[in-house]
Write a structure and sequence with these properties.
The chain has 1240 residues and is mainly beta. The protein has 8 helices and 86 strands. Helices cover 4% and strands 38% of the residues.
Amino acid sequence: TVGAGNPLDCDQPLASALPASAFSGSSELSSSHGPGFARLNRRDGAGGWTPRVSNRSQWLQIDLGDRVVVTAVATQGGYGSSSWVTSYLLMFSDSGRNWKLYRREESIAGFPGNTNADSVVRHRLRPPMEARHLRFLPSAWNPDGRIGMRVEVYGCRFRSDVMDFDGKSSLLYRFVQSTRNPMKDIISLKFKTRQSDGLLLHRRGRNGDFFTLELVKGRLLLITNSGTASPSPSGPGSVALGSLLDDQHWHSVLLEHARQHMTLSVDRHSRQFQARGQLSHADLDPEISFGGILAPGKSVTFQRKHFDGCLENINFNGEDIIDLAKKHRPQILIRGNASFSCSQPQSVLVTFPSAGSRLVLPGTPAQDGVSISFQFRTWNQAGLLLSCRHPRGSTGFVLRLRDGALRLGLSPSPGHVRSDIMAGAGLNDGQWHSVSLTARRNQLSVVVDQVGVSHPRVATVAESGLLQWTGEHTCQSDESGFISPGLVAWSSWAGGGRCTLLYVPACRLAGPRLPKTRDPTEPSSPPRCLPNRCEHGGRCSQTWTAFHCNCSGTGYTGATCRQRESLYEQSCEAYKHRGESLGRYYVDPDGSGPLQPFPVFCNMTDVPWTVMQHNSSALTRVKGADQNNPHWAVFQYEASLEQLRAIIAGARHCQQMLEFYCRRSRLRDPQDGTPLSWWVGSTHGTRTYWAGSMPEAQTCACGLAGNCVDSQHLCNCDADQDEWTSLLSGILWARSGKGSFWNSASFHTETSYLHFPTLHAELSADVSFFFKTRASSGVFLENLGITDFISLELRSPREVAFSFDVGNGPCEVTVRAPGPLNDDRWHLVRAERNIKEAWLQVDLLPPGTHTAPEDGHMRLQLNSQLFVGGTATRQRGFLGCIRSLQLNGKALDLEERAEVTPGVQPGCPGHCSTYGHLCHNGGRCQERPRGFSCDCELSAFSGPFCTQEVSAHFGAGSSVTYNFHEFYPLSTNSSPHAASFHGDMTLARERITFSFQTLQTPSLLLYVDSFYNKYLSVILAKNGSLQIRYKLGLHEDPDVFNFNFKNMADGHLHHVKINREEGVVFVEVDQKALSQVSLSSGMEFSAVKSLVLGKILEPGDHVDEDTARAGARGFSGCLSALQFERTAPLKAALHPGRSGRASVLGPVASSECGARPGIGRVREHKHARAERPGAAEQGKPVENGNRGGSALIGGVVAVAIFILLCMAAVAVHLYQQRSLCATTEVEGPRKTECASGPAC
């Protein structure tokens, strides 16, 4: 016997000793194939049960005589036959009418059966179940035979103490203190009911403290209250578990209360939480009410609906409460009519599991009219509930559910107009709703949940008829739910006879529309939104057969809101490799993990920095702080602590900057050296070192360098000077790591792989990585279980496959690319598997999907290591590179494992084949160990992608001269601007592009001279038109081409392209139609000497008059993006250190005047950087500074005594960088070199 709290060995055979009458079935092939021959290992009769027809509507049922604990079942086929069942469902019931499907998982109901007639297949039930009736429903059988079964059931007797509460009764249990567990109180019970609301138990304490466990709309709510007079079931002190608990099946409840900690378990689901206020188990009164609030001699401040149903095996700290009640012990007080047996309800539940189900009931003739009443519950918005018609006439009515409301449609007799009646709203909420329909003479009334609607005119319905409950298709949706008829009344109204009541068990299921999926009498659908399988705050809703996730506003997509939306990348590095410019972006470093996207500033240099902003990035003045009145500063980043940790973990280098200015503000007490200022980071430890120093150094950066303003002190601030002469600035904190974006491994042999811990992917998992290869196939990753597995592989040069098995059989999702994927370029693979679907995407190709069965296995059970780049059998391994591998939003360190794995090397060369297209305007892609960079030296553009136009503003009289011919031997030149031309070179063609903006006419835009008095000039004439002059002959006059555009000295930016091919010149202005002209003066531009912008300093007498006039006046305005063949003269002039060729005379300054809209601009807004104070001499960082103790901090808050609360200290900027070390420039007069090490 097994009872509450008394588990024993429970594995005895229960069916073998039962009489034949205990077995029943849907049908039998012959008398020798009857259900009574279905005992395991028996050979009598035909050797087992076989139904007349083998289909999925057959069943074998066992009455175990009493309620027992069932721990296992076993099956065989028919003895010596070809009849056996390969899979089946198992249902159980107390009464034999109200059935429930046994589920091994949340959605799994099926059991694998037999593969032959005589072997025994046994399944242990985890968890066990308590039932009197069992029903086996074959769902598949031997295709070459029939259904055939012999069965056995294992378990033991079940001890059950029950009480039946009628909705008005209650029980009070009073106990002595010795019954109380000093550590915690434990209450356990089982209940079953048909009512959606009712109080199970209530316990109160001092000052109005109490907790209540009650059913509310079919869910179990634990309401805790600390002194509130009227608590709300939906308030902050309530916890809900379960759904559809009013299904007339037993549900187990366990409540543990230890001080303020409470754990509530309902069936197999648990929740832990903290009780409100001081609601400790030790402070509650030694009495508990069950079924209702029973408090003799005490006032009850609020009322709850009493419980109507059965409670079983109520146990408090090991005490059997119902047993005490049966023995009439003094601790028990019962009020009302409570009995010690569980009554069965008179109504019968009928399930319509699909839209093809229907129930047909014959009507009985009467004269008064018709009266029908029933209850129903569903989640579907629309469907046909019932119809009534006369077989020989056209009159009748149809009751439908549409948009959650009932619509009664009347079919009128001839001469009458069809009319509809609407009643109720929101009826598809999964709760029970009562419907009563009454027709009397010329009055029709519909009552839904006790709210009625009447209609005055009703068409007459002839005698006798047919009443149908259906799940048929409607014009909008399908109806599948379950209807719970109580009494169904049907009559016609041709006379004054009495109504005849037809009891539901007389009903039958219609033949051709009977669903073939399973027995249609299962009375409930599982609550598919409890627990909520929608991730990242997705909102769950359900129909009778499925659940759906609304992901709007979450930043995620997919069937369960797990996929990150494409606009959110994981880092600034990823945004850079999309070709994005600097600006403000949202990043999501953990992908599908729990962290929400958050804003950062991406500084897109060659090695991108991620700048984290906080609430105090400007200089702040603090004065008058001392030990008795310290100044505290708390800094709030735009990201949470977890988000900061995630972005730091994925960075190759992180650092924090601090600026601290002081005047008469010491850092340490001059008497004993006690720190007067400190900061606290995420580890909550006090730190007294400052930027540029090291922990425990007891000195500042100037003390380490030996250059403090006062050699007697190790920090400038400790000199206590009266001027702003001290500066603490630099890196306060830095961390180097391997990063994740370029973390990669190269696989050189098919037998090599990297191994990692088992992938945690029971209900959902996602994988993302980049790969590049020249091989035609190979396995990217694999993880195995006993039968389950998950695998990603390159199936062929054009196909990637995602395969897995969660117990429903192998599934596969493939994506086929239009071109080869083994092209030695990086390709992105993203895959996800959840309980709704599997999803695979390669690059930006349309994803492949596979929908999971709604009632299939959900849990992926793996136990092997995760193999990356190969398989457990060392076959079909991957040859190539894998990088940036992330599982469930967490990056795997491929390089660390590759360093110790034969056949695998850390890192992977060759990135320009994939990302070289990001280098624009003649920029050249250069390989780096971790990524690439764009070399813009020969381009007229700069920036990480050579997209930022190099522009200069020319003042009056200014001039820039670029010499093409070197005046020293070429062998001594180490400049990347080594001569593209030589004095004796001859150009048959040249390409020139530039932009300009001016108001001056005439103007010289460009002048190119040669050693042989040949030249090219581009000028604006006096009327503002563009003129191009070529003189390529020695004696001829120049060719003059006047482009009669509008006045181009209009202050707007204009773009010019000139392309000469020998004697033909092509000109394009402002991207308009191309103009073509021909030269007559020659076709060779030989011995090119120099290029002049602005004023011509030495024009020579070979220059024509208009060019000389324009050259004498020069140019005033903006010149931008000047490219002459493979040289960038304007860039050379603005960066003279790079080349010795350019000379500048007059006011020429770098400018952004040529920047195109949207290029290099900041998205949203730029990162706010603190301005630096004036010079130390007598400069004042802020105006009106007094001479008292004061300090300034740039980027955070300046204090004499302060605390920084942030992620590992706060500072002006938190930088993230993922490439090799490079100089980081900070605005202002100071430049800080990056920390030493291989990466910054």
